What does this fold into?
Amino acid sequence: MGHRTAFYLVFWLTLFTPNLLASESDSATFSNYKITQMASGLDSPWAIVQLDKDRFLVNEKVGTMRLVESGIISEPIKNLPQVFARSQGGLMDLQLHPDYPNNHWIYFSYATGDRENNALRVMRAKLKQQQLVEQQVILTVSPWKDTPVHYGARMTFLPDNSLLVTSGDGFDYRESAQKKDSLLGKIVRVSDDGGIPNDNPFINNKAVKPEIWSLGHRNPQGIVYDKKRQQVFSNEHGPQGGDEINVIEKGKNYGWPIVTNGIDYSGALITPFKEYQGMTQPTVDWTPSIAPSSLTVYYGEMFPELNGDLLSTTLKSKELRRVKLKQDKVVLQQSLLTEIDARLRDVMIDHQGAIILLTDDGRVLRVVRE
Amino acid sequence: MLAVLVTFLIASISHTQFVLMELARVGAEINLTTRISASLQDLLGFLLSYAPVIAIGLLLGFSISNWVKTKFNSDSLGWYPIAGGLSLLTIHAAMYPILEITLIAGARSNAGLAVQIMAGVIGGWLFYQFRKRALSDNH
It folds into this structure.
């Protein structure tokens, strides 16, 4: 390399490096925002969706569904199915059908049954005059179980309008996450009317539950379809350590409980393995645990610096955890909104690109650009 | 002290084997080295959780047993193995309602719970042997 070439190389590097650094630094910054309170006094709100410009629908874990409009919380929506509300179970996720403006289908997940015999169920219904009508059961997870914990219960729609539902392992039944004749510890896929899509990965194997989309999950409580990347992301609670974000692919095994970076609450091992042949490693591992409770991917004009970033609410670390990816590799993680100082239960992006959060102490918060 | 130690060793090692057995049932291949290393790690992992609970449980169980023995004027020392077994059963029964789950995974099955109780019985039997020796030395 001649001196002249070397000079120009150094010159151009000097010229552009600060700009490159500046652009990385700009995209890392999340500031100039303010947090406003849309509502308070809800009882363990678990999920929220936006019905139209001013109206939101909220599920309370205790088994009630309410409208939130201009800061006013409605009376409970009538005609809900019987919900088994105990411990971690109750009325849980909410999703609108991708064609909701035309067909008005609302999907919700809940625990059904009793202490000795309960299961995760998904129903769809329409909201008319503060009542749920035209109710249809879309999915009931089997086998039923006798623990009121680890339901999973989050949902997301795929572009073909099929529905992915996360199902937890029921805690005492953790090995069921590896059993293909059980829907515990799985992500399952059903069509929007509850049928089984004929391109599900195990549809032709009679020994396998045909609803299974992926297996080896513990308690996945966040799932989102990223329309731009055309990928499904899910986060899940590990035990002590081993919380994860996974890129969910059809038919893959995510390892629980044969593989985890966490240990049991008692201090004992869950498994001797951190890797195992044929089992997919997480994209993100959080050890120690932060307890991720929901997941979305940000696309919007209000916070362009967050575009494409995964946002997980957390219970233990009380934050909105931002994960920036480049080609499935994590390039940045940040703890956002820790000043709220509350267990955050759900996150969604509203029609204006604002970040809507639910807190376990009953608030609906809206984060907007200042 | 030895009774507590032996109970803890049996309870912890059997817990590990039941957990590994369940993993093997769903396809994990576990060799002897992994089995031994997992057992050792669990002994360490339980040191600040299950071990003190067992110690307190047995202490209470043996104390109650002693009181019952005095109350009914019984010379039999066979109360102690029963007390040891009941202590372990009580520990597991008392932990369950905390979250309505089984906190010691090796005790999820009836067989797993039975081995935990047996660990208490063996601890009680050891305590009985020491008491017997101590009493005969005094006489």
Q: What stands out?
A: Residues 3-28 of chain A form the longest helix (26 residues).
